[in-house]
Amino acid sequence: MWPNSSPFSIHLFLSFFFFFLFVCSFHGITGHNIVHETCKKCAQNDPNISHNFCVTSLQADAKSQCANLGELGMISMKLTRENVTKTRSYIKDLLKKKKLDPFMRACLHDCFDLYSDAVPTLKQAMKDYKAKQYEDANIGVSSVVDACTTCEDGFKENQGAVSPLTKRNYDAFQLSVISLSIINMLK
């Protein structure tokens, strides 16, 4: 046995250990189910939402395993903010390239402005969400949906132009509409 330990303390330790395993197992199952159920509802309520994208995204955050619906909403908003911030940085790096077509450079500048505006908008939307001001949060997140859609559409104005941001715009769009769907469930 362990040095300087009584049988009672060992029994108490083992009891807590097995209780902890039980609770973690229970929460893991619940978290798994709530993510899948939430994503299922999101996809049913909005044809723009990919169930698989939703599940994969939310499960990427370890906190989702023990989250409730309100916490999943905050997780989705944080994921959106992270995506928007990284996309903005990516666009900034693209703009540093010397050999950019003038049309492409103009589109990237527009996208940079859109994503730059989206970052503080999302921060405010998250504050509104925490304060349970769901209408205001909805308006903020909706503007992010508009930003990534407008960004992608800008490249389509010139035939043959290929957006270097299609995947990033799609991800930002998906994360935003997941957040909106959860906000609408909480209203």
TrEMBL record:
Q: Which CDD domains match?
A: PMEI-Pla_a_1_like
Signal sequence range: 1-31
Tell me the ranges covered by the Pectinesterase inhibitor domain, including all copies.
Answer: 30-182
Q: Which SMART domains does this UniProt record tie to the protein?
A: PMEI
Gene3D superfamilies in UniProt: Invertase/pectin methylesterase inhibitor family protein (1.20.140.40)
Its cellular-component GO annotations read: extracellular region
Q: Name one GO molecular function term.
A: enzyme inhibitor activity
Q: Which PANTHER family match?
A: OS02G0537100 PROTEIN, PECTINESTERASE INHIBITOR 12
Q: Which NCBIfam families match?
A: PME_inhib
This one is known as Pectinesterase inhibitor domain-containing protein
Q: What is the lineage of its organism?
A: Eukaryota, Viridiplantae, Streptophyta, Embryophyta, Tracheophyta
